[in-house]
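Appendix B, example 12.
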Amino acid sequence: MELATMRFVENKENVVFLGTPGVGRTHLAVSLGMTAAQHRYSTYYINSLNLIAQLNKAHYENRLQERLKNYAKYKVLIIDEIGYLPMNIQGANLFFQLIAKKYEKNSTVFTSNKAFSSWNEVFSDITIAFAILDRILHHCQVISIKGEELFLEPKTPKAKRCIFIPDFLYDDIHEYISKLYGIGKGDQIFYFTKSSLKK
């Protein structure tokens, strides 16, 4: 997987994971962030709703530029779940300011359940949506994930869990998965990678 080389960070490129809920967008984005951190790149994760809430709070406290600078400093900023709920005009404007500040300076990883053609609905304004997409996609790798839901909720506390992970993170993923999904010592976990599925 070319993204694992972290070349996109050195090139200040963005990454966008697109796909319907349950196909593993967030999981892949966080896994990529973990790899970036292991390569000693400053990395930060936040979902889009919390991001806008933080920017709004900073705006009303007259600390917006300070907060924008703080988010923009990370070599890899992960913004998760764009599109689950629409933003109002102020939220869209704040989001644009952050994207503009990071443009061609550092990498951002996005996840969204919406096709780019629907981002005008997410940001409540076609002009703002176009300006945001223009800056995101100028230097960007887009990964569109298609398929059925990959994360199966257990029916009992001891149920088996099937989780898809990238090959390059196979050896280091167990602790992260346990924390993310609240898996206890008695649970059985089955990991699948692309290479193992081909066997």
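The chain has two domains: 2-149, 151-199. Residues 2-149 form a domain with the Rossmann fold fold (CATH 3.40.50.300).
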